[in-house]
Amino acid sequence: MTTSTKSTPGVAFTGDTGPVLRTGDASFDAQLNRSMTAAMRGSADLGEVGATAGRITPGDLGSWLREWRATAEAVRAEGDASLAAGHRVSARRCYLRAAEYHRQSFFFARDDLTRQDLQDAYTAHVDAFRAAAALMDHHVETVEIERDGVVAAGYLFRPAGPDVPRPTVIAPAGYDSTAEAGYLDAALGALEQGWNCLSVEGPGQGGVLYRRGLPLRPDYEAVLRPVVDDLVGRPGVDPAALVLLGRSFAGYLAPRGVTGEPRIAALVCDPGQYDFGQALRGRLGDAVWQRLQDDDPTLEADLAGTLLADPQRSNDFRWRMAAHGVTTLTDYFRALSGFSLAWLADRITCPVLVVEPEGDFASTGQAEPLAAAVGGPVTRHAFTAAEGAGGHCEGLGQFRFERVAHDWIADTLGR
């Protein structure tokens, strides 16, 4: 393998995971990969992504927001011009790309939910996606649920044609995604299989967080239940063929949801996650963990001095705090520790696919206890960097993931 160390922003180079684009900033580059996978699904243009990356100043969070917003607004305007001229396909493509670029723009602006630039960018993200949805060939329904103290929202995508009963993939958003982003992350692949897909966000995700201010909750079974209640009454949904696809943080939310929802016929966890408290203890070390349990009043200052000193790292923690509705590191770690399947996983009796991508920071040490604890049959699949599918949620290897996951779903449902 030939590896180049060239780091000119915005240009292609060959590295351990193949051709990528770079800004010269590691955190920024990780997010660029998401737009590269969006390009595979027609929701980004590699040239536009590269040109935007070339204008971004490494380490400058404001530069990231400004340049992505500039690209998004330009592409949205092009879409409006195409639509006005009657060019629906070109307009749809522009709107999908604009939605992705707006999503990128506010990624690092989520440290404070009251930020006007976050609210403006999120609104533009949703508006661009809905403009695209109005031009799609398949069915798209907006879903809004408020029941039993639960707020959830999203989109139900159904193949074009008659509403015959079909399997439906339920795809919860992750730690930082939106229901709109679920179109390219989950829905397009499901539609190609002839399935429906519900892309859904709940507390701590997308508009439920940014507009309603509702933080993440560990008992996702309480969120999933009204979502399924709403789904099974809709046309074209086979209530006996509901599949829960949990990716990224939803690799925890999905199995937790199934512990209280027996109507799920199959479950995919990518990556499999079991107990955040256990994982957190391993990362903090026993001494710091004990101080956290003891409510040591000096711990916050010690942690902040280490973890919040670097602006980029500080931003990473602060947007996670915002998603959990807390403002200190110690409260964040305590909140995260409550996200656990310990003593609950045996309630999962449907078939489960546990995915393990090599090098995924979210799955370290978690797949094994999850697979051992569930009450139903388990299939495990490991993806590797050598095959181009290492990193968080398989990184750039999205079609490799879909082949494994979709084939398993079809075989499990007997379709």
TrEMBL record:
InterPro entries: AB_hydrolase_fold, FrsA_esterase. It comes from the Bacteria. Belongs to the AB hydrolase superfamily. This is Dipeptidyl aminopeptidase. It comes from Actinomycetospora aeridis.
